[in-house]
Amino acid sequence: EKPKEGRLAGLTTLKTLNKKQRFAVPWPICMTPESLKEWVAIESDSIQPLPHFRQEIFKMMDIAADKLRHLGAAVDSIDMGHQELPDGQNLPIPPILLAELGNDPKKPTVCFYGHLDVQPAKKEDGWHTDPFTLVEVDGKLYGRGATDNKGPVLAWINAVGAFQALNQDIPVNIKFIIEGMEEAGSVSLDELVKREKDRFFSNVDYIVISDNLWISKKKPALIYGTRGNIYFTVEVKCRDQDFHSGTFGGILNEPMADLVSLLGSLVDSSGHILIPGIYDNVAPLSEEEKKMYETIDLNLEEYQNNSQVERFLFDTKEEILMHLWRYPSLSIHGIEGAFHEPGAKTVIPAQVIGKFSIRLVPYMNISVVETQVKKYLEDIFSQRNSSNKLKVNMTLGVHPWIANIHDIQYIAARRAIKTVFGVDPDMIRDGSTIPIAKTFQDIIQKSVMMLPLGAVDDGEHSQNEKINRYNYIEGSKLFAAFFLEVAKMHS
Ligand SMILES: NCCCC(=O)N[C@@H](Cc1c[nH]cn1)C(=O)O
Ligand SMILES: [Zn+2]
Ligand SMILES: [Zn+2]
Question: Are residues 81 and 140 located together in one domain of the fold?
Answer without folding.
Answer: yes
